Amino acid sequence: MSPRPPGKLTLPHLVEMKRRGEKIAMVTAYDAPGARLAEAAGLDVLLVGDSAAMVVLGHDSTLPITLDEMLLLTRAVVRGARQTLVVADLPFGSYEVSDGEAVASAIQLVKAGGADIVKLEGAESRLSRVRAIIDAGIPVMGHVGLTPQSATMLGGYRAQGRTAHAARRLVAEAEALEAAGCCAVVLEAMPPTVAAAITTRIRVPTIGIGAGPGCDGQVLVWHDLLGASGGPVPKFVKQYADLSGTIARALEHYAAEVRRGVFPGEPQTYTMPDDERAEFEAGQ
Fold first, then answer.
1. How far apart are alpha carbons 185 and 205 in whole angstroms?
2. Same domain flag for 25 and 166
């Protein structure tokens, strides 16, 4: 496996990773501390996902998050990760109306937010949006399969491509996104055989989430993989830590020490020269 090149990662390097058969590691990030930790751990790509609507802002779906909120989160991630490629989701309502709206929203995420790449969901009617954004000089990552912004139309948060007809449609959508100029395609919640077929058929990298091991890379939501989501997680998530439990125990310990008067102790307090203290106390 070739070492990660010095300096900021680039799109050509991701394509080269696909050619070499090297897996691309991607995770969501929503703030500067998380971005710094991910970069230090050697992650290749960070996704400022509209999943922040649920895991950060407390909504029941990804739909309510706004472009302004995505800009705030993207700026924070970019400040925390200087050498990692940053992808920012175009939130629902920021690109559906017209190509012009899509370009304006993408420019905001890149110019004001600092993102390297923008991501949008779907194919077919989205292809003109992809081409328009790319014509403006902004790389686009596609997303097919389960597309959370249109989950209601898909019958809920469920796997896609489970019939031969539906699987062929997903392959065609991924090929269309590549033809439109996408630099990579996220494949979400589909049978591994379908994702593997797409990965073989297109030249740009595929990033799987619930799509099996045959993709060129994988992405998971930060809070899900770290066990910090505080609730049930999708079938395709593997939890690598239990931060919810760790954080809860730490907070309980803190609260108990405050109530007992144990915290703050001497190590957490500032000293004062004896003569200054004596003068101060004498004047009270």
1. 7
2. yes
- Does one domain contain both 34 and 63? yes
Q: Is 96 a catalytic residue?
A: no
Q: pLDDT per position in the chain (284 positions), as tens? A: 445 566 788 999 999 999 999 999 999 999 999 999 999 999 999 999 999 999 999 999 999 999 999 999 999 999 999 999 999 999 999 999 999 999 999 999 999 999 999 999 988 889 999 999 999 999 999 999 999 887 665 566 789 999 999 999 999 999 999 999 999 999 999 999 999 999 999 999 999 999 999 999 999 999 999 999 877 888 999 999 999 999 999 999 999 999 999 999 999 999 999 999 999 999 88
In this prediction the pTM is 0.93
Residues 219 and 272 in one domain: no
Whether 253 and 142 map to the same domain: the answer is no
Catalytic residue selected from 39, 121, 173, 188: 188
Residue 210 and residue 90 share a domain: yes
Based on the fold, state whether residues 207 and 87 are members of the same structural domain.
yes
| Inside any domain, residue 261 | yes
| Domain span holding position 118 | 11-241
